[in-house]
Amino acid sequence: MLLSAGALLLYLTKKLSKNALIPILAILILIDLVGINRRYVNEDSFVSALQVDKPYTPNTADKEILKDTTHYRVLDLSSEGRRAPARAAYFHNSLTGYHAAKLRRYNDVLEFYVMQNNMNVINMLNTKYIIVEDEQGKIFPYNNPEANGSAWFVNTLNAVETANEELLGLDSLNTKNEALISTNLFETYNLKSSYSVDSLATINLINSDPNYLKFNYNNSNDGYVVFSEIYYPEGWKALLDGEEVPFQRVNYLLRGMPVPEGSHTVEFIFKPKVVSNGSQIALASSILLGLWLLGSIVYSIKTS
């Protein structure tokens, strides 16, 4: 502070030029910031990753499941999993997640069906592995061959009037062949009640990131696909061969989309407007700041 005050005093008494004052103040501020920061964050604050204790240790079931590199979810029904649900989420795409706060619709499905061991719904959520425990306390993974997969074609779209009907209708729904959709969405997008599904029709997830999904499909007929991904329209965009297309909420919480015949690519990209707007504001601010600094330098040179 004293050095800064001294530099300002020299400038005010015209014993120090403006061109010299600015770098002196910048250096003093930098020294001050580094000194203050080191009081709170120093070398002792950084710990090697090797020294950090891992919160969970993989058990035999986890190790076996982790050998599978495909896309799936895991339901942990062991006593340890019920006691600490975040444990499974540490190693896998856990069906129950790692936090008590969840999307309301997802929480409804968990309480109504998953916790009641409704296999139709568990399969719909692409649960390929279920961690179970025998009477002796031995934990092992059950490989569920009936999991629906990441996406599938359905034969029938059943329109329902209310969200309650949609939720309760999951109880008896054949999720592999049928899907539920609100009457409003059904009519808005001019959807059909029935679709022909070729026995050789396929759809595969080929790229999966938190903000990006890519599917390739082949079907000889126009069809309707259900994706085992949570419907959340704020920020998510669907693309068919690179062109934006609409998608709908089906089965109370999943995504669905009508698709044309042939071989095509479907992508889901997460680009929320708030992030885009924030980036534009930050860029504009940086440009304005840069112009101001450049103008200040040019002005200082001209006046000196």
How are the elements arranged and paired?
Blueprint: H1 2-12, H2 18-40, H3 60-65, E1 73-76, H4 79-83, H5 86-91, H6 104-114, H7 119-124, E2 127-133, E3 139-143, E4 151-154, E5 156-160, H8 163-169, E6 178-182, H9 183-188, E7 202-209, E8 212-219, E9 223-230, E10 236-240, E11 243-245, E12 248-250, E13 254-259, E14 262-270, H10 273-303
Parallel strand pairs: 1-2, 5-6
Antiparallel strand pairs: 2-3, 4-9, 7-8, 8-14, 9-13, 10-11, 10-14, 12-13
Helix pairs in contact: 1-2
Question: Which structural traits does this protein have?
Answer:
single chain; 304 residues; alpha+beta; 3 domains; five-stranded antiparallel beta sheet; four-stranded antiparallel beta sheet; 10 helices; 37% helix; elongated
Q: How would you portray this structure in words?
A:
With 304 residues, the protein is an alpha+beta fold. The protein has three domains: 2-40; 60-143, no CATH class; 151-271, no CATH class. Helices cover 37% and strands 26% of the residues. It is built from ten helices and 14 strands. Strands 7-8-14-10-11 form a five-stranded antiparallel β-sheet, with no helix packed on it. A hairpin with a 2-residue loop joins strand 10 and strand 11 (243-245). The model has no long low-confidence stretch (mean pLDDT 86).
Kindly summarize this structure in a few lines.
Helix content is 37%, strand content 26%.
